[in-house]
Amino acid sequence: MPNTLTSSYLEKSVWKPDLFKGKVVFVTGGAGTICRVQTEALVLLGANAVILGRNVEKTEQAAKEIEQLRPGAKVLGLGNIDVRKIETLVEAVKTTLKELGRIDYVIAGAAGNFLADFNHLSANAFKTVVDIDLLGSFNTVKATFDQLQKNQGSVIFVSATLHYTGLPFQSHVSAAKAGVDAMMNAMAIELGPLGIRLNCIAPGLIGNTEGGARLNPPTKVPLHERVPIGRIGTTEDIADSTVYLFSSAASYVTGTISVVDGGLWQVGGMLGELYPDVVKMQLEDPEVKL
Question: Residue 142 catalytic?
Answer without folding.
Answer: no
